Amino acid sequence: MRLLVLLMSLAMPLVAWFSQREAFGPSNGAISDRYPTLVVAAGYAFAIWGLIFLLDVLFGFWQLSSKRRNDGAVAGIRLPAALGFALTTLWMPVFSNQRFGLALLIIWASLACLLVCALRLSRDPRPAPGQRWFAWLPLSLHAGWLSLAAILNTAQVIVAYELLPTGNMLPWSVALLAAAALMLLALNQRMRGNLAYVAAALWALVAVYMKQSASELPGAGTAAWVALAIAAILAIQTLWLHLRARPALSVAN
Q1: pTM of the full predicted structure?
Q2: Does the keyword Transmembrane apply (predicted)?
Q3: pLDDT computed for residue 253 by the predictor
Q4: Which of 12, 89, 106, 206 is surrounded by the fewest CB atoms within 10 Å?
């Protein structure tokens, strides 16, 4: 299982390299432009994948050591981490081939796997040496970005298959953003204010604001401010969770 985690972490940037060169079909950016929505993020935001892939590869090598064969939470997340990496890899060629329904199932399944990892690591009372930097950080960041990427992907599927009105996308786009807010706040609460998870989510939400504030689609301005409001609420919740935890730590000491 340790070797499988490493191989799957290496597969992601490799397949991404081929995907950006349109080896499997149109690039993600080209498809996104073809099916514009009110919840898509600015193009620069997707550069975060480079950091996520780098940290995931570092995690793959770190957990490979025989010293960490039975390290508590790390041993327990190898299977969901490997599955999450594999599904992230699979999503790229499937999306490029415009199999949007299948791609949507894959990205939500990948998110579920990475959330299992982030939740377990965030609540581990006795983390192994280096676990916070080499396991919690990469997997939480990955989960945080996927939490918004899955919502963005959902909106694109709706537009691609015209499941809901595309002339007036604001009502259902706001509903999607509201669902994203509930998910983010609930998970952040469970993870006691996971800074890496929140950082990735804020990066995505601000990028949605940047993209939509410059968009000419009807309702884009409103969607932009909704995304920014969610970012502000998430940041305030995280600050509150950490401030609330300080007195408990002082009493424990």
Answers
A1: 0.95
A2: yes
A3: 44
A4: 206
